[in-house]
Design brief:
Number of strands: 30
Largest sheet: 7 strands, mixed
Helix content: 40-55%
CATH class of one domain: Alpha Beta
Structural class: alpha+beta
Strand content: 15-25%
Number of helices: 27
Distance between the termini: 56 Å
Radius of gyration: 33 Å
Strand order of the largest sheet: 18-30-29-28-19-26-27
Length: 794
């Protein structure tokens, strides 16, 4: 069916751009017509093309398409084959680029082409696609909301425990005669009593398997529930047949009601344990969501009022009493206190916060009354961004999952085929069709793809959750794989290896006095966010220097700043810039070892003269030495890129014993420097915190940003460190390696259970009850192994 899709396209500048895009789109399969409106930057596509092909065509032409991501909860999944079936169903919806289902969280992340009209991609359309596959798509609730809806007291017969307890009570008398035989006691329960006990287990407590299996058949597919339903029904049906056919002929026949009932009980128990274990993988995210305060004291209508925290507006004045959680990101305007930010940044020690300091929503005000101005509310807040990033990471797929998905898609049909061959083989060769049925049942119940489906997401969830608890935010699962492979870490200097708070320690004027030199530098630097600029402003304010009138202020990227004072142009910046201007610099005047130096010059009537120099010293972070040593112990090379002077860079490199460093590197050259390291064969991680680091962070195989830095740097990075501790870099790499090691272990156990168990069951070496127990154990073992990551120490 032909449809119309409207896309928002960025980067067009003229009619030739529109023509280029139309031409590219018309080459896409199933595109009937493509029309570009240059004024509104909207592209209308008629036809029924693939969203991915549309995206590739537009990006291939050199333009960008606006996209959006949605998250939903999915109910009814039981195994990895369910997850892949839902993904296929969603990918068939026009406009859906990717669909990643996480079996562990029972959520789906859907990437869509942002459409001007969302009729084609309404939730109802997505829900219909999922429903046709046999599942339900529902609006996503936060973990805290889900806890609220799950926890209200339910009747015992509707609780999670009831199916397991009820099935176990009825199954125990059926299994006891088997146990008694081990002690030479021959006790056989009457066939009628066996049937009365097994039937409720089969059709009441086991009804969920029939429902889910039937839905899979209706959708033309198969899943784990179908295997369990078929296997246990075969054992139950065989028992009915033997009871009907042989009762009274040669004594009581051996029935297999205990096998069907025991298998169902064990599977139900495994599912319950698996569900409880999976809840623990989201502990870190649940803890983050639980610290979001619900109320806040805000100054409105000339008095303090208690209002819902979600109603807070930017720039409102908020009061926080001792012991309360800070409800919003803000800046302190009155008071001082110790603040516990452990859950937000992983910093174990409370921090002293006073006038002008920033505070983060969700942290705890310990001992003082604070008044602050709200600077970020709602989705803009640090805590909201952290929660979103952790959710995205936990919902993402690791690259290794692609192989698992391929296996899962053919796993259940293959098992059904093996079970059929087992039945026919035993029946034809030995003539014992009863044994053939039992061995086929064992094949069906041991072959659970749940462990395969849980192996990767459970480890990813546990790993990223543990990382978040220690102040390391991972954007996606691919970042973990890249971190594991890293063999070179390149640090920015200022604010990353050093405190980023340099002090102005030397003023040397040439044609003016020291006070005028500081005054002019103050005027040029007052609007700059650069650390050296802040040092100038701090010193000028301490010395009560008058602020001059500077006009036409401008930042020259990678070089410095310029402006006009009394019609004369002032330039303050690097040695390279001054030399480009043709100045000869008196370098012997620099008396501070390893200092960063800025030079002030004045230009008038095409003549330029040097007015003075300013020297800055920046203290190396206490943790930097240990951070570098820790990385080297892992066999990782450590380098540094900085725009600062060669002397300053050499001082830091020498003190930290770095493998390599480059100084006076312009922002645009940092990415090129990273590329050169990559050309030498290194897998490079770049660590930075400033706007000028963003290109290098994007170029690196792995970008790591300090959250103490700029938003641009953070958005360009795959991993964000919530506190400015370089030692977290080694911790992130260590955790990534541990997570991937855990994934390999999980996949080994998942494959081992099936590759060993299925042949044993087919050859008659596994009783159906043991097979059912092994299947339940496999899933629980995988999730429990993943939970070991939560105990990892740094």
């Amino acid at each position: 069916m032909q449809s119309s899709i409207q896309l928002a396209v960025q980067g067009m500048t003229c009619s030739s751009c529109a023509g280029r895009i139309e031409k590219a789109l018309l080459k896409v399969k199933n595109v009937e017509q493509a029309t570009v409106n240059l004024a509104t930057e909207i592209v209308t596509v008629e036809g029924n093309p693939s969203a991915t092909e549309l995206l590739n065509a537009i990006t291939g032409a050199g333009y960008q398409v606006s996209t959006e991501t949605r998250q939903y909860q999915v109910t009814g999944m039981t195994c990895a084959s369910c997850a892949s079936r839902i993904e296929k169903a969603l990918l068939n919806v026009a406009g859906v680029m990717t669909a990643n289902v996480n079996l562990a969280t029972e959520q789906v992340n859907i990437a869509l082409l942002s459409q001007i009209s969302d009729a084609n991609l309404s939730q109802s359309l997505l829900s219909d696609a999922v429903q046709k596959a046999g599942y339900q798509l529902v609006a996503l609730q936060s973990l805290a909301e889900r806890a609220d809806t799950e926890e209200p007291a339910l009747p015992f017969y509707r609780s999670d425990n009831w199916p397991v307890i009820g099935a176990a009570i009825l199954t125990l008398p059926l299994v006891l005669p088997m146990l008694a035989m081990l002690f030479g006691i021959n006790w056989v329960m009457p066939s009628l009593w066996q049937w009365l006990l097994a039937t409720p287990v089969q059709f009441y407590f086991g009804a969920r398997f029939y429902r889910a299996g039937f839905n899979a058949l209706k959708a033309g597919t198969s899943n784990m529930d179908l295997l369990v339903a078929l296997g246990t029904s075969a054992a139950y049906g065989l028992s009915l047949y033997l009871w009907y056919s042989f009762e009274g002929l040669h004594g009581a026949p051996h029935l297999y009601f205990e096998s069907s009932a025991a298998v169902l009980t064990l599977v139900l128990m495994g599912k319950l344990l698996e569900k409880r274990a999976k809840r623990h993988t989201t502990d870190a995210l649940r803890a983050l969501e639980s610290v979001q305060p619900t109320t806040a004291k805000v100054w409105r209508n000339e008095n303090w009022q208690s209002v819902p925290a979600i109603e807070l507006q930017r720039n409102e004045k908020v009061k926080v009493l001792p012991g309360e959680r800070i409800p919003v990101d803000g800046k302190i305007i009155n008071g001082d206190s110790h603040v516990d930010e452990a859950l937000i940044s992983g910093e174990s020690m409370p921090l002293v916060k006073t006038l002008g300091d920033k505070v983060t929503g969700g942290s705890i005000n310990l001992d003082g009354v604070l008044e602050l101005t709200a600077t970020a509310v709602g989705a803009e807040s640090t805590l909201a961004k952290i929660i979103h990033m952790v959710e995205q990471a936990q919902g993402a797929k690791a690259p290794v999952q692609a192989l698992v998905d391929k296996i899962s898609s053919v796993f259940v049909p293959l098992v059904l085929l093996i079970a059929l061959l087992t039945l026919i083989g035993w029946g034809m060769i030995s003539g014992d069709w009863t044994q053939g049925i039992l061995h086929a049942v064992a094949v069906l119940v041991i072959a659970c793809p749940c462990a395969l489906g849980l192996a990767t997401p459970a480890a990813i969830m546990a790993g990223t959750g543990t990382a978040a608890r220690h102040g390391i935010l991972v954007k996606d699962a691919q970042a973990l794989e890249q971190a594991k492979q890293t063999d070179m870490v390149v640090f920015d200097k200022t604010g990353t290896l050093t405190e980023g708070k340099p002090e102005l320690i030397q003023l040397t004027p040439f044609q003016i006095d020291e006070q005028e030199l500081l005054m002019l530098a103050y005027g040029l630097q007052q609007n700059s966010e650069h650390p050296l600029a802040k040092a100038v402003v701090t010193r000028a304010q301490q010395d009560a220097i008058k602020l001059p009138d500077i006009k036409h202020f401008k930042v020259i990227a990678g070089k410095g700043v310029q402006g006009e004072e009394n019609g004369k142009q002032l330039l303050l910046g690097s040695r390279r810039w001054m030399e480009e201007m043709g100045l000869t610099l008196p370098l012997q005047q620099i008396t501070t070892k390893g200092a960063s130096v800025s030079w002030l010059a004045r230009k008038q009537d095409d003549k330029i003269g040097l007015l003075g120099l300013l020297c800055f010293a920046d203290k190396i972070k206490e943790q930097a030495k240990n951070a570098v040593e820790s990385l080297k112990q892992r066999g990782i090379k450590v380098a540094m890129l900085t725009g600062d002077s060669a002397a300053s860079a050499q001082q830091v490199a020498s003190e930290l014993e770095l493998d390599d460093y480059q100084a006076e590197v312009l922002p645009q050259d940092k990415a090129a420097a990273i590329a050169r390291y990559q050309q030498q064969g290194y897998q490079v991680a770049m660590v930075g915190d400033g706007i000028n680091d963003a290109p290098a962070l994007a170029q690196a195989d792995l970008g790591i940003a300090m959250a103490t830095g700029t938003e641009v740097a953070i958005s360009a990075a795959a991993i964000t460190l919530m506190r400015g501790d370089p030692a977290l870099v080694s911790a992130a790499i260590s955790l990534a390696a541990a997570t991937y090691r855990n994934i390999k272990q999980n996949l080994f156990w998942a494959f081992a259970f099936n590759t060993i168990g299925i042949p044993l069951a087919a050859l008659g070496y596994l009783n159906p009850i043991i097979a059912g127990g092994a299947m339940a154990v496999s899933s629980v073992l995988v999730v429990t192994n993943a939970l070991r990551l939560q105990r990892k120490k740094f």
